[in-house]
Design brief:
76% helix, mainly alpha, single chain
């Protein structure tokens, strides 16, 4: 029962990461060409979204735990471990590209000279993380579906 609970939580939390990520990706085509004033105004809608960032380490932890719990079945374990690695990669992308853009613009309240490059960096780092989150969801789901309870 513990494995099924962790499988459920891993899949649900991993799926939840796609909500904000998908929102970022969906608006990218409409935001990427905005004027500086319009872009900085629109960026204000993300105030308070930092709390959603806790989904990534939660998904990393749950998928890592799942990989450990199902380690007797290498296929399921590797799928869960790869899902966890996806979230590690997402965190690296965030730290290397998204966070520096947020810091330089003081969360899009200050306009630096290179704001357009920072916008591309910010938008495309989110787009990459959306794709990776989708892969992670697929892997986590496949791990849960491929696991078989061992006979008593």
């Amino acid at each position: 029962m513990a494995i099924r609970t962790i499988q459920f939580l891993a899949v649900i939390v991993t799926a939840l990461t796609l909500i904000p990520a998908g929102a970022h990706l969906a608006v990218l085509p409409n935001k990427i060409g905005l004027s500086q004033a319009d872009y900085f105004t629109v960026q204000g809608i993300y105030r308070g979204w930092a709390i959603l960032g806790w989904l990534w380490p939660s998904a990393l932890l749950l998928n890592s735990l799942l990989a450990f719990l199902v380690r007797s079945q290498s296929g399921s374990s590797w799928l869960a471990a790869c899902a966890a690695l996806c979230f590690a990669l997402m965190l690296v992308i965030f730290v290397l590209w998204t966070l520096p853009a947020n810091q330089t613009t003081e969360n899009w309240t200050t306009v630096p000279a290179n704001w357009e490059a920072l916008r591309r960096q910010w938008e495309f780092s989110h787009a990459a993380n959306t794709a990776i989150a989708f892969v992670a969801l697929s892997l986590s789901t496949l791990s849960a579906l491929s696991w078989r309870p061992e006979a008593p």
